[in-house]
Stage 0 sporulation protein A homolog
Amino acid sequence: MTEIYYIEDDENIARMVKEYLVKKGYSVSVFRTLQEGKRGFMRQVPELALVDWNLPDGKGNDLLRWIRSRWVEVPVIFLTVRNDTCDIVAGFEEGADDYVVKPFELEVLYSRVRALLRRTREVSGRYLSCGSISLDKKAMAVFYQGEEISVSQAEYQILLLLMTNKGKTVTRESLLLQVWDKNGNYVNDNTLTVAIKRLREKLHQPSCLKTIRSFGYRMEEDAWIQE
């Protein structure tokens, strides 16, 4: 099901939009502040974001700038009152895809959402994230706080397996089998230990990469978020 994030502090508007889009077959998560929206993105990247221009802890383009520094192709639609439309120009310069002026007809918003999703399919499946780490499967690239990190093929495959199974422990045996042995390249157990050590160093010792003693490793969200 297509996942949409709606960052909006007005509960009534958020409820109406969510109910309408859910009836149209979308999954909608509502966040009331920029920080809540960021936490949502860190858990899972949606296929589209609706962002109110004025939020309790900042402007919509602050969130857009943060999104674009990590996930360039995620479509973003601003929702704004008419007096803010001049400021929206700055939003487009930051990379917004569209905007809708409040008050708006739900059918109009729905048509904009559909049109934008047709142009940007399968965005959420392309990205994986955990804490300050993100992975672009299409580009086969790894990022820390939005900056690309150079990793080896084995390091990339390890991180891909761990992030694909975020929240689950991946055993050392499974990592050795899927990263090395499947190609007929047998290696000893110490090879994985060294690869994990190098990966941690390149990613600035991320607290979300956990060692599960005697079993393996697990990617797990932290309680806080790097702004």
Remarks:
- The radius of gyration is 20 Å.
- The chain has two domains: 3-125, 131-219.
- The first helix runs from residue 11 to 23.
